[in-house]
Amino acid sequence: MSQQEFWNSKFSRDGYLYGIKPNTFIASKIKLFPRESKVLCLGEGEGRNAIFLAKRGMNVTAIDASDIGISKLHFRALEENLKIETICADLNEWEVKEKYDVIVASYLHMYKNEREDLFEKIEESLNSGGYFIGEFFSTKQLNYASGGPKDEDLLYTVDDFKKHFALCDNEIKEQVTILDEGKGHQGEACVIRVLIQK
Asked: Rounded CA gap, 5 and 113, in Å?
């Protein structure tokens, strides 16, 4: 099953799988976003982070493999009278064509062997001084029932980020939190919160 088929099957249900509120960690860092920042949302799904950021005056581009997720994002953007650029593509096929002030991701499920390539693209896409901000499921999430993949290869460790972004300023922490994100993420979870500055 392709990434598109997998996520389309999840997003084709009524409503918004992960709710319409932004990820709380990303939202808590909004002060770091320069005014009218160019922001890229990776694996953005149905658009909850993109909508939140566009409402605050950011120039937002969202990328996701699911055309159903992207069409739900478009629908909400129209309702809110927001302009959000979208790219429907698997992140493994994403080509770096622009630079961004901020790149965000919440619960991006990438296999271990695909991450190095993705992290390189993220670093290449950031302007000097730009931020990569995200929340990811830790390998310890296997002990919790609040959502996320049951395959350790799709989960992260602090070292996954520290190894690649060693030359950037970084704050990478594993912690237990309570998720309240639609039907998809509910309850206690072990996450890795990433704040990296190029």
From this structure: 21
Backbone angles phi, psi at 64, to 5 degrees: -155, 150
Token look-up 């997998």 returns: 6
How far apart are the C-alpha atoms of 113 and 129, rounded to whole Å? Answer: 27
3-state secondary structure of 118: helix
How far apart (Å, rounded) are the C-alpha atoms in residues 64 and 159? 25
Using 50, 70 and 90 to split pLDDT, how confident is the model at 188? very high
* pLDDT tens-digit readout, 17-73: 888 999 999 999 999 998 899 999 999 999 999 999 999 999 999 999 999 999 999
Instruction: Tell me the one-letter amino acid at 113.
Output: N
SS3 50: helix
> Which pairing describes strands 38-42 and 126-137: parallel, antiparallel, or unpaired?
unpaired
CA dihedral (170, 171, 173, 177) positive or negative:
negative
Dihedral of alpha carbons 156, 98, 96, 68, sign: positive
Question: Cα separation of 111 and 23, whole Å?
Answer: 22
Alpha carbon separation from 127 to 5, 37, 169, 172 (Å, rounded): 33, 11, 14, 20
57 three-class SS:
coil
Q: End-to-end distance of the chain based on CA atoms, in angstroms?
A: 35
